[in-house]
Write a structure and sequence with these properties.
Elements lengths: L5 E4 L3 H13 L6 E4 L2 H9 L15 E4 L8 H10 L8 E5 L4 H9 L4 E4 L4 H18 L10
Parallel strand pairs: 1-2, 1-3, 3-4, 4-5
Helix pairs in contact: 1-5, 2-3
Length: 149
């Protein structure tokens, strides 16, 4: 499980710290790359901007994406991930505070693999991160080749 990279797209530093702390507390020691806005996330995924020249062979096993982001929303990030053959099969978990039914439907329409509402209680949050990590980093089987036409 440790060699699978996680891309966390989160602009709220409190939620970022809570997520990273929950991963570590649950002994999920995978490398986590944090993008603080939608554009930075796409730059990382596609090796552009400040990530130009990065090793594109190292891609996330899972993307955890908030919806309300600066520059580009989580919806736009999801659209672009699904539109690119290299990232099309990458699991994208929407982790947000909203339980708006229209947003949930839109995320699934755009190709989200899961939609999770952030629990307010820190213990529940930690348990949710444990379950998320166990499923997407340990149990889930992804195709060896991420490139899909």
């Amino acid at each position: 499980m440790n060699n699978k990279l996680v891309l966390l797209i989160e602009d709220n530093t409190d939620d970022e710290r809570l997520t990273l702390r929950a991963l570590r507390k649950n002994n999920i020691m995978n490398e986590v790359v944090v993008a603080y806005d939608g554009q930075e996330a796409l730059d990382y995924l596609f090796g552009t901007g400040s990530y130009a020249g990065r090793d594109m062979a190292v891609m996330p096993a899972v993307v955890i994406c908030d919806l309300k982001l600066p520059k580009l929303s989580g919806f736009e990030v999801l659209k672009q991930i699904r539109a690119n053959g290299t990232t099309k099969a990458t699991p994208v978990i929407v982790l947000t505070s909203s339980d708006d039914e229209a947003q949930i439907e839109e995320c699934y329409r755009l190709g989200a693999n899961s939609y999770i509402r952030k629990p307010n209680d820190p213990v529940e949050y930690s348990d949710m991160i444990l379950q998320l990590g166990m499923y997407w980093l340990l149990l889930n089987q992804a195709p060896r080749s991420k490139a899909l036409a």
